[in-house]
Write a structure and sequence with these properties.
The chain has 536 residues and is mainly β. The chain is 1% helix and 47% strand. The strands form eight sheets. Strands 25, 27, 28, 30, 35, 36, 37, 38 and 40 form a nine-stranded antiparallel beta sheet that branches. The protein has an eight-stranded antiparallel beta sheet with strand order 5-26-29-39-31-32-33-34, with no helix packed on it. A five-stranded mixed beta sheet has the order 1-23-22-21-20, with no helix packed on it. The longest helix is centred in the first third of the chain and has 4 residues. It is globular and about 75 Å long.
Length: 536
Amino acid sequence: MDLSWSHQPLTRRRTLAAATGLAAGALLPPGPALATAARYTNPVIWQDFADIDIIRVGDTYYASASTMHYSPGAPVLRSYDLVNWEIAGHSVPVLDFGAKYDLNGARGYVRGIWASSLAYRPSNRTFYWLGQIDFARTYLYTATAVEGPWNRLTTISTPYYDAGLLVDTDDTLYVAYGNTTISVAQLSPDGRNQVRTQEVFRTPSSVGTLEGARFYKINGQYYIFLTRPANGQYILKSSSGPFGPYTMRQVLLDLRGPIPGGGVPHQGGLVRTQSGAWYYMAFVDAYPGGRVPALAPVTWTADGWPVVQLVDGAWGTTYPSPAVPTPPRQVTPMTGVDTFDGTTLKPGWEWNHNPDNTKWSVGDGLTLRTATVTHDLYWARNTLTHRIQGPTSTATVQLDHSAMRDGDRAGLALLRDSSAWIGLKRDGGTTRVVMVTGLTMDSNWNTTGTGTEIASAPVSGGRVRLRANADIRPGAPRPGTFSYSTDGITFTRLGPAFSMGNDWRFFMGHRFALFNHATQALGGAVRVTRFEVSTP
């Protein structure tokens, strides 16, 4: 079976570059032959999935992505055609890396799951996830199915920054990692320990920073795929083994991307189809929504270097669809309705930090009992988040608030380092629907604003529907608007538009978020009976 694995890191050291200019590459001339074939459109996923590592196992493609402080971490996406994707599970079930990931005396915003690696080992039919946490150590998790259960195999004292894991053809495990200085480590046969590590490449000053390693063996050659944040992609090649020496070639630089207002596609991975065709899945900086995956075909030069296929000198907005076997089924859409049936949350949900699992339940809807007494949403535990679908989408929540207590705050937020929400305030035995804005953090991710109520209306009865509409087209701050309904038919706008900023430094994009926290005492609860994400 043909396997490919690769990795994408986060752009944390450079200001996002404008998507201008051309890159060296082979042009795909438009013409009738291409126009009549099935085609796909970029981005293939208009949701926030950055630092993608992509592999194929048999007829199925898998990808992993960064999640920072969200829990569970490191989602695994699944596809049968490289174009249509679903969320299958998470490689890191809980962020048990310290109290800050529990919002217990400290916070882990913009920490946690950075660029990491996903691989498959045929010899034991096992998936491996590897990533470093807090520049302190590396964790390795394994599972025999991406849905889980995932279990921690080992902790390695070397922090493999922006790592790419390679399962060699002789079953040896290697890790490429580093920033500017790139190293390769060899792991023990069981993957639990480091056997050897060695510097293999030092980036020339003329290039600047290279990071985000993905590690491959292709036709007997070893390749380390690296990104130049946030506007380039380079590759190293060795004919002498995994420890080099390596030579470097530029893959793309300042390449026009497929999303108007978005950045340069970069920091991605290579994968080979069953028929032998190659593709590169990168991410495009597309704030305020985050970093979204785009796909382009790749060819190889006679001397073994990859070339991204361009359309009119740019990463194409559309390409012919990959030639793959007929999928065995349709993937589960990333939008639609969730009524929180069953015994677990569906994999599209991630908590803001680890939840208090005694304070929530699913089955007859989602029950959120207050887990924190605070006036600061950024400190409130058990805030449940969902990615926003681009370019615009709407989240509608049906909420039973009859069990709220005085001082409780519950609702639907557009959550990031600058946030706003629509929801319910219960005070003095009276419940109002309110719009709150001005929830802010500084560049060290400390709270600088806990929010100001700028609109309100009385509500009666025990149920209300809340709605947030989000425009996440990149290139400028975009509006988010809020409305509510007491009958499920007529929605009333509440408050002015909230400006969702397009700065990159929080890394994760805005999300829809469900929350319920106390400002006086614990004991209250709300029940979400329906959540829907819809697009125009």
